[in-house]
Amino acid sequence: MKHPLLALALTGIIPLIFIAPAFAGNHLTLPKPAELLVVNGAEISKSSQVSLENGTNQIVFKYHTKYRSQGQDKRFSSEAIVLSFTAEDKTLSLILPSLRSTSQSDKFNQTPQVIIEDSQGDELPIQTGVLRKEGIQLGRNYSEEVLNYNKTDALAAVKDLAPTSVVISIPPTSPQLELEVLKDKAPELKDQKNISRMLDFWYSQADETTRNAFKEKINRADTETH
Predict the structure, then answer these.
(1) d(CA 201, CA 152)
(2) Is pLDDT at 192 greater than 50 in this prediction?
(3) How far is CA 9 from CA 12, 20, 106, in A?
(4) How do strand 55-69 and strand 80-87 relate by DSSP bridges?
(5) CB neighbours of 152 closer than 8 A, spacing ≥ 6?
(6) Strands 42-43 and 34-39: what pairing?
(7) For 47-56, what is the mean pLDDT?
């Protein structure tokens, strides 16, 4: 054989391809007209695909499309739609309706009719809602809006994504004593999934300086434990 080293490398790689475990979780694909805004409380960059944990998830998106009316093209941008659902290890697709008139688009904004289906074509039970805001829409903080939405009794609200605010009064003292007071007074959080979501949310709210400081703390902690 001309390339014995290459053959040896491939014999080691090929078995790994077939024994690699499948991804545990859900994959959601969105159509091009859907603009993804928030996933489980955290704003994300525009994407047509997203990986989600097993269990209950929530996304916020907008529907951008156009239609012909009286011989002219009309552009439509929907309200921010809240969508919550529960799934386990599914490959999912978001299906949006075709809008062909102003009356249909107005109706969609009032009561969005969308579908999430799995790879077998079966529809998932979903809950939908709308984040409404009057006036100018520029510069909206969707993560904060959905946080407040999740504190309500709306159908698509997910209570686990609405962390309860905790106010702790700490007298001026040493940083070490402050940490001890925090440990003693802060509520016990045993649900690691919720903790992960809260960390994702607050990290998304931090500026670059705060994010870098947080990363340095994690690196120091990893160094000290090794």
Answers:
(1) 18
(2) yes
(3) 5, 17, 60
(4) antiparallel
(5) none
(6) antiparallel
(7) 93
Q: Tens digit of pLDDT for each residue in 135-186?
A: 666 778 999 999 999 999 999 999 988 765 444 444 555 555 555 554 554 5
Tokens 């960390």 — which residue? 199
Tracing tokens 């102003």 back to the chain, one arrives at 102
The residue type found at 122 is D
pTM score of the predicted model? 0.63
Q: What percent of the chain has pLDDT over 90?
A: 51
Structural tokens at position 157: 């609200």
Backbone angles phi, psi at 176, to 5 degrees: -65, -40
DSSP codes of every residue in 123-171 = BPPEEEEEE---S--TT--HHHHHHHHTTS--TT--GGGSPPP------
pLDDT at position 183 is 54
Q: What is the pLDDT of residue 10?
A: 44
Residues 75/125, Cβ–Cβ less than 8 Å = no
Cβ count near 80 (within 10 Å): 23
Closest CA to 63 of 103, 36, 34, 95: 34
pLDDT at 163 (0 to 100): 62
Beta-strand runs (E) in the chain? 26-29, 34-39, 42-43, 49-52, 55-69, 72-77, 80-87, 91-95, 115-118, 126-131
